[in-house]
Specification:
Shape: elongated
Distance between the termini: 78 Å
Order of helices and strands: HH
Structural class: mainly alpha
Helix content: over 70%
Largest sheet: none
Strand content: under 5%
Number of helices: 2
Number of strands: 0
């Protein structure tokens, strides 16, 4: 009987978790379409800048290594 009680308690806590999660998601203030487009553009620009920075850095280091090894 103790085993069945633990199973019932386990499923109860699982259902409680999901119902609490749904309740919390209803409290979330979701961004508007305009905000989401602006956030997406900020992320894309940032990723592009960081990518260019690391590409230039990589080219510089590889040229430096080539000069040193030749």
């Amino acid at each position: 009987m103790a085993f069945l009680g633990k199973i019932k308690q386990s499923f109860g806590s699982t259902f409680s978790f999901f119902s609490d999660s749904v309740a919390e998601l209803k409290k979330v203030r979701w961004p508007s379409r305009k905000e989401m487009v602006s956030y997406t553009l900020v992320v894309l620009v940032t990723v592009t800048i960081v990518t260019i920075y690391f590409a230039v850095l990589d080219l510089g280091i590889s040229n430096l290594v080539r000069v040193i090894t030749e």
